[in-house]
Amino acid sequence: MATVLYLFENRYNLATALKIHLRGQGCKVLMADAKLGVSEKGSFYYPDVMVTCDERDRRAIKVIYHPCLVVEVLSPGTEAFDRGKKFKNYRRISTLKEYVLIDAREMAVECFRSNENGV
């Protein structure tokens, strides 16, 4: 239970800090209850935190398709998937600029940034 609470607090603190930092810039910061669509045909995920500044997502209600930042807080049960198949699918999102993995157990943060080859 303590691990679950700690992971929730990490997501909440990060989302709050991003909302403050991006205030007034036309960006939306969303937490784990927001659905991210890799494409119109699927796959769909619920990242721990994501940010979209894309006009196409401003009125989105059910699904975000154009995030610029996706953050996953790793846990023993999700780490391999977050680093593997999910990351591979996220790389297909043309607007994604950064993919961040937070390992609360190791107190480590990894940030993957887009370049000419993608993320």
Distance between the termini: 34 Å
Percentage of residues in DSSP E strands: 25-35%
The radius of gyration over CA amounts to 14 Å
Strand count, sense and barrel status of the largest sheet are: 5 strands, mixed
Instruction: Report the total helices.
Output: 3
Corresponding CATH architecture: Alpha-Beta Complex
CA-based shape:
globular
Strand order of the largest sheet: 1-4-6-7-8
Fraction of residues in helix = 25-40%
CATH superfamily: tt1808, chain A
Low-pLDDT residue spans? 1-8
What would you note in describing this structure?
With 119 residues, the protein is of the alpha/beta class. The protein has a single domain, classed as tt1808, chain A (Alpha-Beta Complex), CATH 3.90.1570.10. It contains 3 helices and 8 strands. The chain has helices spanning 2-22, 79-83, 85-90, and strands at 28-31, 35-37, 44-45, 49-52, 63-64, 69-73, 98-103, 108-113. The strands form 2 sheets. Strands 1-4-6-7-8 form a 5-stranded mixed beta sheet, covered by helices on one side.
Q: Which tags fit this structure?
A:
alpha/beta, tt1808, chain A, three-stranded mixed sheet, 8 strands, globular, disordered N terminus
How are the SSEs ordered, and which strands pair?
Elements: H1 2-22, E1 28-31, E2 35-37, E3 44-45, E4 49-52, E5 63-64, E6 69-73, H2 79-83, H3 85-90, E7 98-103, E8 108-113
Parallel strand pairs: 2-5, 6-7
Antiparallel strand pairs: 1-4, 2-3, 4-6, 7-8
